Amino acid sequence: MGRTRYVKTGTSDSLWTLPGSALRAVFREGYGKTDLRADLLAGMVVGVVALPLSMAMAIAVGVPPQLGLYTAIVAGVVTPLLGGSRFQVTGPTAAFIVVLAPVLVRFGLAGLLIAGVMAGGVLLAMGLLRLGKLIQFVPYPVTTGFTAGIGTVIAVLQLKDFLGLAPASAPDHFVERVIVLFRARGTFNPAELGVGLFTLAILIVLPRYTKRVPAPLVALPLAAIVAVLLPQLHVATIATRFSTLVDGVLVRGIPRLPPLPVLPWKLPGPGGQPLVLTLQTFRQLAPAAIAIALLGAIESLLSAVVADAMAGTKHDPDAELIALGAGNILCPFFSGIACTGAIARTATGIRYGSRSPIATLVHAVVILLCILLLAPWIGYLPMTSLAALLMLVAWNMSEAKHFVHVLKVAPKSDVAVLVTCYLLTVFFDMVVAVTAGMILASFLFMHRMAETSSGQLMQEDHPVLKRQKLPREVMLYTVNGPLFFGAAETAMAAFNVVGVQPKVLILDLSAVPAMDVTGLVALESALARLHQQNVLTIIAGARAQPSHVLRKAGVNEEPGKIAFSETLDDAAVLAARHLH
Questions:
Q1: Longest dimension (CA), the chain
Q2: What residue segments make up the domains of the chain, in order of their start?
Q3: If 519 and its partner were Cys, which of 124, 312, 515, 547 is the partner (CB 3.0–4.6 Å)?
Q4: In this structure, are residues 543 and 509 in contact, taking their beta carbons and an 8 Å threshold?
């Protein structure tokens, strides 16, 4: 899509320049009528695609479908105005289902929305602290493992509506939910399955023939027509499943109301009872809030990266986190659930010609108009069709081909991280999975760093020395690789096995790109031991970062103790002078 376009970033920028960096960049480059027409068309298409998805996400969490629509509207207005990506479409996504559904069961709607506000605060802090680029350090096996696990959980949870089951309860853990669904197998409705399979077939087959028309725009209306024309099938729809009391009147399906301001803590809590806001409540909600924030940050920034690859742009990750934080703080005050960047909707916007964040604003307006004008018709959508849509989303999210490919070709350590994250996500939750995965990946990283870092002790000849050989009283110790924790002891180990005590030891750090405090302590211990043995240590070829660490620690030249040189040849000359 043309030459690469950048959103200005950099640590020298003021924090006040972060919000809205993408929108400002678009207007700086020039925004004309052609761009506006393209954004209007793309925004209308994305709005139509986002409408059923937003409802399906809300229903899967366990809240009324209009709450998903309110989320898409509020987030669709806030995040493009403040964000750092030109094409990001923000709203409720499938990844949040496994996190939000247990919170709703334990704390009610009030607790769910308050957790969203807390998550927004965490995201806002991450953006202000410029932590956006740190997301790239999450290992690929970790993200692949928990996204595949989330996809598995979502797909299994859709069996309830896809098969027309009527379970007796809705536990907040995966294994218990599977057991409850199995016990409800006697309530299976073949008609629900038939309509669901009909929807799923269109969703899968239509994109193979044409991508000009979004598949949900065809599949869901056709399924609704089948349900209306064949009432004897008794297929559950949004109108038969959900109802809302508006001014004392019971409205079935989606009420014709825009997002209205509410106080989240005034909404029903556990068991429909009021939620008491105490310090203990916030403590109990904190793990869920952190999980929402981390998952939202990862998915949103991954979506921005995908958009960059498709459109040849570059996003500002810190501005994106600030926008996402603001969106998650504001959504609950309009009955909206947690939101994040949606990869499928973002990619749809780009494919249909999106030029700027204005397309995302248009998508929010389209959803609002659908609520106000088409709410009664939306109520005819079958629940099994929305379940089929979510099952397809879960399949795409799991990236089964990539999962199997990693299992086949990756080292055993990476496979262990992948499988661990997957199983923990399915049988426990995402917080446990990501925490355990990051810890396991960190230990494996330290082990690999220790393998790559080494030390070599030699005398007389050295391939780098050009002008002279080393005297017998001089030893050369070469360190290869970074002196990080986990690797420092391995790199300095040969100091403990020196047989003959030299008078001068040249410590070659030219192959050490970086050093942390663990490497510094190991090096200081070696220098102290050599000083006690009256051995002069010449540190040769230290690079900028290790030199800065040494200077900051007070490791300076001391006659007869420590000397510095830029090259090994200079160090050999210094050693000869000391001996004579």
A1: 106
A2: 23-257+270-443, 453-579
A3: 515
A4: yes
Each residue's pLDDT tens digit in the chain (580 positions)?
Answer: 444 454 554 444 555 567 888 999 999 989 999 999 999 999 999 999 999 999 999 999 999 999 999 999 999 999 999 999 999 999 999 889 988 998 998 999 999 999 999 999 999 999 999 888 887 778 888 888 888 998 899 899 899 999 999 998 878 778 888 999 999 999 999 999 999 999 999 999 999 988 788 888 899 999 999 989 988 888 999 999 998 888 888 889 999 999 999 999 999 998 888 888 899 999 999 999 999 999 899 889 988 988 888 888 888 999 999 999 999 999 999 999 999 999 889 989 998 999 999 999 999 999 999 999 999 999 999 999 999 999 999 998 888 888 998 899 888 888 998 999 999 988 887 778 877 888 888 787 777 766 666 666 665 555 555 555 677 788 888 888 887 765 556 656 655 555 557 888 888 888 888 888 888 888 888 888 888 888 899 999 899 999 999 999 888 888 888 999 988 888 888 888 888 7
Q: What is the pTM of this model?
A: 0.80
The 10 Å CB-count burial string (b at 16+, else e) for 7-44 is bebeeeeeeeebbbbbbebbeeeeeeeebeebbbebbb
Can you read off the two tokens belonging to residue 444?
């494996």
Domain 453-579 has CATH 3.40.50.720: no
The DSSP code for 471 is P
**Coil, helix or strand at residue 5:** strand
34 and 68 Cβ atoms separated by less than 8 Å: no
Please write down the HEC assignment for all residues of 34-78: HHHHHHHHHHHHHHHHHHHHHHHHHHHHCCCHHHHHHHHHHHHHH
